[in-house]
Amino acid sequence: MKHRRIVAAAGLSLMTVAACSQSPASPPVSPITLNQAGYATELRQSFGQYHWPPDYRPDTDRLIEATQPLADERLSAGVTKTVLDIVNSCAWYLSWDAATARGDRVASESALRVMAGKLTKYPPAEDLRGKEFVTRAAERARVGDPELARQYVQANCETVRWMGK
User: Is residue 99 helix, strand or coil?
Assistant: First the structure.
């Protein structure tokens, strides 16, 4: 199942790479669950709360299709926030990498500001490894090293379809 990578990551917390894990102090799972229709509604409502780079916006229909629960499954309410945190992180990492490759300093610096700011706030407070990873990814990107950003995208967003790509 292609949607399992993002959904599995969402179920654990912001997934960075295999080295990251959820702390025992993680908040309890929501007692409210979502079927396919509820999941799609929640994701669409939450999508507009995110700032996306101009060159990487996910196709929300395809994202829902790839990450929604199966017909006989239900997912915890709020899981869409984690899915969108992951996909938004990928979008900014990809945007920074593309801007750097084409020599666009303005777009690269814009993406770096988000990487060093907003993205470091996505991992839950108890996910120390996740916070460390995104902080290191931003630090390494600032000196021109794309490796951690690329690892994150490869580990989390291979199935995401981007608008216009």
Answer: helix
